[in-house]
Amino acid sequence: MQSASDRHEYPAHWEADVVLRDGGTARIRPITVDDADRLVSFYEQVSDESKYYRFFAPYPRLSAKDVHRFTHHDFVDRVGLAATVGGEFIATVRYDRIGTDGMPAAAPADEAEVAFLVQDAHQGRGVASALLEHIGAVARERGIRRFAAEVLPANVKMIKVFTDAGYTQKRSFEDGVVRLEFDLEPTDRSLAVQYAREQRAESRSVQRLLTPGSVAVVGVGRTPGGVGRSVLGNIRDYGFNGSLYAVNKAFPDEQKELDGIPAHRSVRDIDGPVDLAVVAVPAEHVHEVVAECGAHGVQGLVVLSAGYAESGLDGRERQRELVRHARAYGMRIIGPNAFGIINTSPEVRLNASLAPETPRPGRIGLFAQSGAIGIALLSRLHRRGAGVTGVTGVSTFVSAGNRADVSGNDVLQYWYDDPDTDVVLMYLESIGNPRKFTRLARRTAAAKPLVVVQGAGTAPQGHAVRATRLPHATVSALLRQAGVIRVDTITELVDTGLLLARQPLPTGPDVAILGNSESLGLLTYDACVAEGLRPSTPLDLTTAAAPEDFHAALARALADDSCDAVIVTAIPTVGEGSAGDAALAEALRSAAEQVPGKPVLVVHVELGGLAEALSAATSTAPQAAAGPPAIRPDHPFRALDRLRATPAPAEQPAPGNSDRLIPAYPAAERAVRALADAVQYAQWRREAAEPGKVPESIDAAIDEKGAAALIDGLLTRGQGLTLGNEETCELLGTYGVQVHSALPATTADAAVRAAADLGYPVALKATAPHLRHRADLGGVRLDLADEEQLRRAYAELTELFGPPDELRPVVQGMAPRGVDTVIRAVIDPAAGAVLSFGLAGAASQLLGDTAHRLVPVTDREAATLVRSIRTAPLLFGWRGSTPVDTPALEELLLRVSRLVDDHPEVVAVTLEPVVVAPRGLSVLGASVRLAPPPARDDLGPRTLPAY
C-alpha cells in the first residue's frame, strides 16, 4: 500500500485517524497504486446518482484508464486521499494542479481542481468535510493556495460542504454548472467551523460510549469473582435500561444464560446490535475480541484489561496495535487498564465499572485517569452526599486508564454541552495536548465550573504525552488563565466541587463570619485573610445560641449589601444531640432561602449529624404528599429530605440547577479554600464575558512584512539560529521595540570611544555568560560621568574578573532610573507560545515570582500579567516610591506577543533588563532565537493522536 510514487516517496505523515459527525472513526490516507481493487469495489457500491454528480454524466463503471489515473499520483501536482473503515474505501477526494488556463500544470501554479465521491451509505457522517480539511492541508504543504470545484446545482450536499467550510470564496454559474473558488488560507471563520465540527464529533463519540442501548461484557467468569463477573453484576444491579449480554468463549455450547443474563461464546453470536463492549480478558486475547466486535458493528470499547503501556516497551507496542486495530473498525476505546464508566441518567443507568459503592445520581461530571483515584473520588462524593439523591451525586464518570484513545479532552467536549452536568471535576496525571486542553477548558469554564487536580508533571508509564519544556508551575498558571480552578489534592477537588454544585457563585470577596465559637470564628477569619478574601469581624453568637439565633444572624448577614458570602461556624451544644443538629440545619436552610443569590458554607466541629442534615435539607427527592413528612426510625434527620429551597427568579442559582444544599466542612481552611476558588472563578467568568483586544494603536509601529523578510533571510544561514546584537535590534525594531545601543569595549580606549559616541553618563557591563544580568556579582558599573571614571571602572573589572576577552565588556548609555523587569516569550512544542513577566533579580528567580500568559495576549491580559506577580507593588508606588509607567510596560508586552504570534519562527525572545521608569521604559538587553516552528496541529485538519 505504501509504494513509492512517481516523484515523491509515500507521504506517511498525511495518514490520520478522524472522528466523524456521528462519533465513529475513519482513517484518512493517500491513495496508492496498490489500491486499484479497493477503488473498483468502492465505486461499485456508489449509487448511479452519486456517480452522475461526480462525473456530470452516466458513469456505471471505471475503465482501466480511470483506475490507473485515480491510483497513480505524484503527491505534488496530483494527490488522492481516501477515507477508510475496516480497510475499505468509504470516500475519496483528489486534486489536480491547474494553470490559469484551467489545464494541468506544475508548480509554481498555485490553484487546483478538487472533487469528492462519498459512498451513499456513509453520506451525512461528515466524511467529505473531514476530507476537505485534510486535502486542503496537503495542498498548502505543496504550495497550492486556492481550490476550484465544479458542482451540479442539484448536488446540494456537496455545495454545502464547500460553502460551510468557512474559507473566503467566490461563486459563479456557467453552462449549467456551479463553479466555486476558495482560498485555502485558514480564516477565523474556517477555524471556528473546524472547532465546532470537532466538538460535535468528539462529543458524539463519547456520548455513544456513555449512552449505549446494549452492552456486552466480554470475559465474564463462569464462577463468581473476577473483573468481568464483577462488572456484569454492577451493570445488572444498577438497573441498566438496555440489553445486557455475558460473553466468554469458554461457556459450554448449551449455556444460554448466566445469573439471568443471556450468555454467548462470542459477540458475533449475539442477535441484534451491540453498542458497547466491556473487555475484561487477558491482554493477549484482546486483539481477537476487537476483531469480533468490529465485525459485529460494535460502536465502542471499554478495555479493563491490563498489560499494556504501563508494563513496558512490549506493552506499549501492544497498546499501539490495540488502538490501530479498533480505529480500523471505526471504534473508540476507553482504556486500556481502565476502571470503567458510569452514567446515572434515569434513561441509561449504566455502572460499567469496578466501583465498590453505587454512585448517587447528580450533576457532577467526574474524570480520573487513575482507577485508584477514581475509587477515592467516588467514595468521598458518596460519603459527603450523606444520602443525597440530587446535585451532590455524579452525572457521568469516566476512568480512562492509559487513555490510549479517549482522553480528558474528548470527555470535556461531551460535558461542555451535556445538560445533565453542571460541574466538571478532573484528576489528570498528565495532559497529552496542553494547547488543545486549554482551548477546550476556556470554552467549558465560560459555561460551567471546571476543577482540576493535576499530577506533579511526571506522566505514568502508560501515558503517551508530548514533551514540554515548561515547568509544572507554569503549566498550572496557564490552566488558571484558561478558567480552570486548579487545586492540589483530591480532598480540595471534592470540597470545591461540592460548593460549586450546591451554591451560587459569589459576586465578590467580602465574607461574613458568624457562629457559636469565637475561636473557630477567628480561625476562619485568619484563613480568609491568607486566601486573599476580605472577611468582616466574626460575629460570636456564644455557645448559648439557639437555632433561632443562627437563623436571624444569617438572614441579617445575607441581607447586607456589603456581604458576598457567609461562613457559619458551629460547635456541638451539650445535650442537644441529633435533634439539635436537625433544628440548626433547618434554621440555616430557611435563612439561606431568603437570599438565594449568595453562597453559604458551614464549618462544623464534630457535628456529623449537622453535615448530613444540611445535605438532606434540600434533596432533589420527589416531593411528599401534603402534610408533615414522616421521620424514619433509622434516621432522625431524613425528615428534612423533602424540604427544598428554590431561588427567586431574579436571583442567581447554583450553576445549572435550582437546588441549594449547604455544604459543610470539618475544617475552616477547607471551607475557605473552596470559597476562595469560587471567588476567583467568578471573577474570571466576569472578565471572560468581556474579553480584551489588541489595541490598534500599536499597529502603526509594526512592519510585519519587513520582519518576515528579515526572518526568511536570516534562516537561510541555518536552523536554530541565535541572532547577534545588531540583528536582534533590527528585528525587534520592526515591531516598535527599541533596544539601547551597547557598544563593544575590547580595550579601555575602545570603551572611551564608545562613550564619546553615546554621550556621558554611561554604564560599563560585563556580558560574559557567567556575569550577564548578575549585577550582584559586581560586573556592572553605573553612572560613569567622564573618561577618568570609565577608565578606572574598566581597570577594576579586568582586575576582578579577568581579561577583556573573557569579560566581553560593553558600554551603554545610562537609562532613567526605574524598576528592573524581565520579559520572555518561548514557543513550547506542547503548550504553544507563552509570554512571561517578572521583576529582574535573584530574589524573584528564587521565589519563582513569574507570571505567564498564552500568546496572543490581549490588553486585558497584559494588564493582569503585570499585576499578578507577588512583587507587583514595587511597580505601583510601594512604601512611597514613585509609581512607574505600567501602560508603557503593557504595550511592550503586547508588541512581543504580536511578534511571536505573527512569526512562529521566533521561538524565543528575552528582554532583560527592561527598566520601567516613571515615564517610559528602556530595554537594555535583548536576545532572539529563530528556528523552524514546531508543528501546530490546532491549525491543521482534525486528527486523533497518532499511533
Q: Top keywords for this entry?
A:
single chain, 947 residues, alpha/beta, eight-stranded mixed β-sheet, flat
Task: Report strand order across the widest sheet.
Answer: 1-2-3-4-5-6-8-7
Cα end-to-end separation: 18 Å
Beta strands, count: 39
Spatial extent as radius of gyration: 33 Å
**Helix coverage percent:** 25-40%
Overview of the molecule:
By secondary structure, the chain is α/β, with parallel strands linked by helices. The strands form six sheets. An eight-stranded mixed β-sheet has the order 1-2-3-4-5-6-8-7, with helices on both faces. Helix 8 (283-296) runs parallel beside helix 9, helix 11 runs parallel beside helix 12 (434-445) and helix 12 runs parallel beside helix 13. The protein starts with 15 loop residues before the first strand and ends in a 17-residue tail after the last strand.
Provide a brief overview of the structure.
The protein is α/β, with parallel strands linked by helices.
Helices and strands in order, then pairings?
Elements: E1 16-19, E2 25-30, H1 36-44, H2 48-55, H3 64-71, E3 78-85, E4 88-98, E5 111-118, H4 127-141, E6 146-151, H5 156-163, E7 169-174, E8 177-183, H6 188-210, E9 214-218, H7 227-237, E10 243-247, E11 257-258, E12 261-264, E13 276-279, H8 283-296, E14 300-303, H9 313-328, E15 332-334, E16 340-343, E17 350-353, E18 361-368, H10 371-385, E19 394-399, H11 408-416, E20 423-428, H12 434-445, E21 450-454, H13 472-481, E22 485-487, H14 490-502, E23 510-515, H15 518-530, E24 534-535, E25 539-540, H16 547-559, E26 565-570, H17 577-594, E27 600-604, H18 608-616, E28 664-665, H19 668-688, H20 704-715, E29 721-722, H21 725-733, E30 742-744, H22 748-758, E31 762-766, E32 780-784, H23 787-801, H24 804-807, E33 809-813, E34 819-828, E35 832-839, H25 842-847, E36 850-854, H26 859-867, H27 886-902, E37 906-916, E38 921-923, E39 926-930
Parallel strand pairs: 5-6, 9-10, 9-13, 10-12, 13-14, 14-15, 18-19, 18-20, 20-21, 21-22, 23-24, 23-25, 23-26, 26-27, 27-28
Antiparallel strand pairs: 1-2, 2-3, 3-4, 4-5, 6-8, 7-8, 11-12, 16-17, 16-19, 29-39, 30-33, 31-32, 31-33, 34-35, 34-37, 35-36, 37-38, 37-39
